[in-house]
Amino acid sequence: MEALQLTLFQQSPAVLIGALIAALALLAGVYGFSAAQRRRTERERMRRIETSLDYWTRAAGHLYPLISPDPSSPRRAQPAASELPLMAERILACKAAPYADQELIERIDHYLDKRDRQSMLLLYRTLEMQISRLTRERRSLLARGEQPHWGMLFGLTLRPLLPFIALLLEGALLLYSLDDIHNAYVAGPPFPFFAILRFLSCTAALLLLYGVLSAGFRESGRRASFIIMALLIAAISLLHLLGLSAAPYILIVQVLVFIVGFRFTREPKRKERPYAGEYE
Hints:
Blueprint: H1 2-11, H2 13-67, H3 84-93, H4 102-114, H5 117-146, H6 150-158, H7 162-187, H8 191-214, H9 222-237, H10 247-264
Helix pairs in contact: 1-2, 2-3, 2-5, 4-5, 7-8, 8-9, 8-10, 9-10
């Protein structure tokens, strides 16, 4: 088969040139689409951050004078009656923020139900931590787009190539698997089934690794966990070099690691954090 393809290219240079042009066109198309999609995603993410910050800073601004430890600031136990409607509106509006999580919503409901100083303090701390976290995310997005470091710039330039690289790797894997299955039929059962398991194992590892590398994670301790688990599953697929007979066992180990990943990549519960609303 390879000899036939080589002979075809040697006798018809136009075929080779056409194949190269088609590959370059595909590369340019995938790169352009991926880069444009990435820019749209980051603009939408910035919009959600700005909207959430706008809601939360307005509400925190109403709460701050009531819990401020600064002696020079007017400190009151409760808001004035004239401030209550606007304050309640600003606090309730925090629920409409794109990045309002369940913990913040519970803090808001708890404060509106109790209306005491303790619930007010907890709500303010939660808002303050959420504001700090989103401010760091906004600073990171601006730096990545306007003041990237050299390594970051190199990574951002290569990132739109990930779909093309994944497509090439999957195509090469498919061609190799077809040849693998053909040879397995010569060897007899159960090797054809093992060859299919090997293809499924490598394809799943490739898709998982691509999904993790191309995902736009927000600030969270789970980001490192996702990457580590995906790299581990991809590394396990390299054990297929040991031979076709190991394919079922390798696939089973990958499935077990994937299941264990649900434990290590879950969102930490509030009681597991030092303070309410803090992201590890």
